[in-house]
């Protein structure tokens, strides 16, 4: 059991929801309200864009939705589990199994090959080696990188690194995928490939 009981509204297809999220940062004497009473619902299969000016709270919201940061007040539910109330061990399990991230700086491991980077979440989850390799290979084919599996991230272009990060985020077939500017370095063809990944 990872936390509070699932809420009954799951029957309506809700995968992710927030209730009255607030996030306040204090820097010295200054108080910055990054999020103020944000209530949202996201449904299974839905693709949602969040946009706004630089500094408007987009990255803060994504971090809280994925359990990388905690709200000052309010609640976050993923598949009915209130993740905002979980301890660090429980939260880590949720992130590993139910949330995929694509960060702006990609966070790839330069010591590993492209294939190994995509395999990483599956290995952490204890999947069998052959299943892990098959899944990672399939995802890299889908993002047109099946010819770069043995390369290291530093040998790739920014757009290629972005596609590796996206494949890695989807490796465990998470319920929620959070992407911070996911197609910023991609051409139209590869943007389309990324947005239709499964």
How would you describe the overall organization of this protein?
This protein has helices spanning 58-65, 88-98, 114-124, 129-142, 158-170, 188-195, and strands at 14-27, 30-43, 73-78, 81-82, 99-102, 176-179. The protein is α+β, with helices and mostly antiparallel strands. It folds into 2 domains: 8-86, Rossmann fold (3-Layer(aba) Sandwich), CATH 3.40.50.300; 114-195, Rossmann fold (3-Layer(aba) Sandwich). The strands form 2 sheets. The protein has a 4-stranded antiparallel sheet, with helices on one face. A two-stranded parallel sheet has the order 5-6. It is globular.
Q: How many domains make up the coordinates?
A: 2
Q: How much of the residues is beta strand, in percent?
A: 15-25%
The strand order across the widest sheet is 2-1-3-4
**What integer is the average pLDDT?**
85
